Amino acid sequence: VSRKWKTNYTSINLGNDVYIGGKEKTIIAGPCSIESEKQAESIAEHLSQQGIKIMRGGVFKPRSSPYAFRGLGIEGMKLFHNACKKRGIKIITEVMQASQIEELYPYIDIFQVGARNSQNYNLLDALGKSDKPVMIKRGISGSIDELLYSAEYVFSAGNEDIILCERGIRTFETSYRNTFDINAIQVLKDKTHLPVLADPSHGVGIRDYVPGIALAAIVSGADGVIYEVHPTPEKALSDGQQTLNFQESEALIQKIKVLERL
Ligand code: PEP
Ligand code: MN
């Protein structure tokens, strides 16, 4: 995945004129977890009104506590798919284990590998045999080179449609959830031809700081952002503290569009 090997940057074509990597910045938004038909529909409608073409949302959730909400599973995937399909929106969702690849496949456009699975080499090998794009998140304590090696697993198994995602790392700092590594954006863009997205929601973990990190990442050369949005973040079943409401989401989208024109 090195630029020594391929000098021009990779652009991933999702069909219907939706690309990740290239001239335009990609905006992906959606809830941490798909919670209900009503919630999925209202978020898909918000994205559609804002011209956002890719929705995120987890149905298999890797939670720190096994007693927390762990997602609606494949039934949630179906209602997520329905909400997006009728609006022409593409879908990214997390795949937690190789056995889920096949069941998720008909409903999704991009497989997300979460931070906790960033070095699950069996999962990466299996996704390397798929023909759908894979977004790999940086591990919670993962180095930049480890993230690149994770991408090599998918690439060398035959799948070259890979997106990298900086989502913050664990440091000694306790004033916020994770330390978004702004340096990683420029380092990754130097080292690899793959598209690089920023996840400011997990990257900082505090709603009010999410837009600032998103904009900083864009200015640093990220190919786009992936953030969490919910009609009522305070009632969200996961990650509400770092989730934007529709108004905040719209304001962020407008600011990203201003930056794009610079
Ligand atoms: C998520 O995207 O909701 C998620 C669980 O992220 P991460 O794997 O970065 O913690
Ligand atoms: Mn989340």
UniProtKB/TrEMBL annotation:
Position of the signal peptide: none
Domain named DAHP synthetase I/KDSA: residues: 12-254
Keywords: Transferase
Keyword Transferase attached: yes
Protein name, UniProt field: Bifunctional 3-deoxy-7-phosphoheptulonate synthase/chorismate mutase
Species of the source: Flavobacterium rhizophilum
